[in-house]
């Protein structure tokens, strides 16, 4: 009896040990020269990796390199004989990161090594925290050699002001008076290229300078979305109308292709000239970065040559980060004395990319009642 009891204790100990091994951090490597030593016994300046087997240090450093896409001198002194000194801020940050990863694995993942440096970094020294909504690839994760080989980023233009860029855009659209004062009614086809998604017809009513309504014919139901000077509402089919969230209303204003030029300047708060870029089709653009009352960030891309708005990206705030919506404008044509885009592409999260193609558009006065929130029972 006693023997059996003892044996089961041994088995249990082995099981617990197995668990510890599986969980990982206490893992002891097999037969390596200094596996009996701790890191802090073998090296001079250890503050975060204490208690780990000494022969884990070098492979761990290789893992850091691979995870961040960098070499040893990214964190360490350029003198390879002085790995112990803390001469670069990156080494100190890396220590904090080690603590953070240990802690998150301990508290959230029961000690299993679920979160690693690579989980966030993916081969980049600065992780990308914003979802990619366009079909274009993320910036490459090719490490510091690649980054070092890049030409220096272009400077923020010093001689060009935000007002100049927006004024040129409005002038390029046509008669300034008309740009800001014409109501417009149009129909648009919405397609989702490359997907089995039925194209939808949308009616757009834009009343200058700041009210809009879209009616999306979705099967038998109409989905309505309206924004106004103070608020907005939406209604799906016959359901009760709801108020737009504030950020949603700002997004709707920015997505209105007719009224945008009339209210863009007022909407952009704290606008700044950003680094110019070259976008699709090799076009050079000025970039203005700003925010709106309810959106944390908006970026507007204006073609240097023509002054036209080529792209607008706005960001929604969430509890955990921001996500973008991108609008690309194409094919500006003249409608009643001002230019409007005949095609635009809206890219959203989860790779929802819709192309909007103008079918009809005309300048026509619209009565305010069109934008009134319907009562819950009305049809
Ligand atoms: C992402 C940052 C980072 C990279 C990249 C990195 N290290 Fe480290 N290294 C550290 C940190 C942080 C420590 C200290 C760990 C601690 O305090 O417990 C350290 C410690 C060391 C030590 C111990 C020095 C001592 O005596 O205290 C050596 C040796 C070392 N690294 C070598 C390398 C080599 C070789 C490479 C490239 C293959 C490399 N490291 C890449 C962050 C980095
Ligand atoms: C939970 C996500 C996450 C994990 C896991 C993570 N990091 Fe980071 N790390 C970040 C973020 C985000 C930044 C950028 C912070 C900033 O820009 O202020 C960063 C920055 C760094 C930097 C500074 C880079 C620079 O350009 O100066 C170093 C070094 C670093 N991390 C090392 C590590 C190491 C080593 C590990 C694994 C032990 C690790 N990180 C794990 C999110 C993470």
Query: What is the string of SSEs from the N terminus onward?
Result: HHHHHHHHEEEEEEHHEEEEEEEE
Overall body shape = elongated
Number of helices: 10
Q: Measured on Cα atoms, how large is the radius of gyration?
A: 29 Å
**Low-pLDDT ranges:** 1-33
Query: N- to C-terminal separation?
Result: 82 Å
User: Which CATH first-tier class of the largest domain would you pick?
Assistant: Mainly Beta
Q: What's the β-strand tally?
A: 14
Q: Would you tell me the structural class of the helices and strands?
A: alpha+beta
CATH topology of the largest domain: outer membrane lipoprotein receptor (LolB), chain A
> What value does the average pLDDT take?
85
- Helix amount: 25-40%
Report strand %. Answer: 25-35%
The main β sheet shows up as: 14 strands, antiparallel
- Enumerate the distinct ligands: heme C
Count of discrete structural domains? 2
User: What's the architecture of the largest domain in CATH terms?
Assistant: Clam
CATH superfamily placement of the largest domain: Lipoprotein localisation LolA/LolB/LppX
